[in-house]
Structure prediction request, 222 residues.
Amino acid sequence: MIAALATGITVSACGSGARQDASEPTGNFQVSASAHWITSQRLSQHSVLVIRVTNTGTKTIPSPSVSLTDNTPGGGRPAPAFQRLLHMPGLANQARPVWVVDQSPDPASASGPCPQNFNAETYTGPNYSTCSGGPGGAVTAYANTWALPPLAPGNSVTFAWHVTAVQSGTYIVNWQVGAGLNGKAKAVSASGGAPRGSFRIVIATAPQQAYVNNGGQVITTR
Prediction:
């Protein structure tokens, strides 16, 4: 009797919720996008992938987003962002990191860096903030996609990933801008296509060299 009642409650609760994409508007949203990343890297080198999105249309973009994918052979499921798939039988998890993500996009820091005198010990803001070591407020349920708050016409927003290379080799990283997370709102460029691009990154085996000078500054060399 109790089990039957619990089942009935569960079914009722699951069936009464609204669709996740119910509030997402349908249509095309015009944007322009630019991307920058160092394409020649070394092991242990820190770099920043920056993608800037501008709303060039007349409608507010509900959820500007960026998805990152690799070139998975055979059109299979892509690796999680900044990782690679080993394609080795018997492994429970085929993904291995190519870059360690030190800091992800965050609405709080999308328009600039963390405060210069920021103190993580006394910070009282959201615990997801990258300023306090969190994953960032732009993280989504999708392993390859980050999203920021609505973007008004004429405004721009910057997605920035601070990463460290940990695996040598040559890698392709594709990026694409979206206007929503559920497929109803679509970002389009001035030509009508999807705003997208790719990077071919070569990570050398020799790690980047660094030393501390007499002034206490970290100096990196090739």
Q: What stands out?
A: The first strand starts at residue 27 and ends at 36. The mean pLDDT is 80. The radius of gyration is 21 Å. The longest helix spans residues 2-16.
